[in-house]
Amino acid sequence: xxxxxxxxxWPFDDSPDEEVVTLDRIIRDGAPVLLVAHDxxxxxxxxxxxxxxxxxxxxxxxxxxxxxxxLADLSALPIGWHARRATxxxxxxxxxxxxEVD
Length: 102
Fold this sequence. Notes:
Blueprint lengths: L18 E5 H4 L7 E5 L2 E5 L9 E5 H7 L13 E4 L8 E4 L6
Antiparallel strand pairs: 1-4, 2-3, 2-5, 5-6
């Protein structure tokens, strides 16, 4: 049973039906999620590469957890914080504020 089907195991305060922002290349091409931002506008699941507005897509939080279950590790990420990792095998590094753009 997946996390999205069992409310007792769902780790986020937000519903699995919460709309979040991600990138077309993550959804369609399987690019890894390496950067997550949680701000007043909600969650953004990104790949750490340069982003153009046209790259963005809106999906459900539950969809993102099904794509990458390790994102559940960030369920307690406070609003105004972000998390980054170099590869999907690395641990998330969390920091307050907006992520720096390379």
